[in-house]
Design a protein that fits this description.
The protein is of the alpha+beta class and 110 residues long. The protein has a single domain (3-95), classed as Alpha-Beta Plaits (2-Layer Sandwich). The chain contains 5 helices and 4 strands; from the N terminus they run E-H-H-E-E-H-H-E-H. The protein has a 4-stranded antiparallel β-sheet. Strand 2 (38-44) and strand 3 form a beta hairpin. The longest helix is centred in the C-terminal third of the chain and has 12 residues, at 72-83. The two termini are 24 Å apart.
């Protein structure tokens, strides 16, 4: 069972993108990607909303996510969020462990 957390960082004056730039340039994002149990930590930019950034944050299980939340990385993230005055919307998804059903797979072009 894996866990995916979609975090929508919202700001003004380009601050959400500045936040991502600092997360990347400081090495914080890369350090999170190297944490045990991290599957994915990637930022995306919605075309229709230049003041929002989407983070897709995936972990092997709840224990891995809990370790991340207890890590020093969370303090850095919190400092950056405050610095750029960001607000968040969060969605959480848990894998059922069954993978992609064949009925869905037929719509995917690889």
């Amino acid at each position: 069972m894996s866990i995916a957390v979609n975090i929508y960082y919202r700001g003004t004056k380009g601050n959400a993108r500045k936040f991502v730039e600092e997360m990347e340039s400081s090495g914080t994002a890369e350090a999170i990607r190297r944490e045990e149990g991290n599957i994915k930590y990637e930022y995306f930019f919605p075309m229709a909303d230049p003041e929002t950034v989407l983070l897709i944050d995936c972990w092997e299980d709840q224990k891995a996510l809990d370790r991340h939340h207890a890590s020093p990385m969370m303090e850095k993230i919190t400092q950056f969020r405050k610095k750029y005055d960001l607000h968040m919307g969060v969605e959480r998804y848990v894998s059922d462990g069954n993978g992609m059903p064949e009925s869905d797979r037929r719509f995917i072009r690889e």
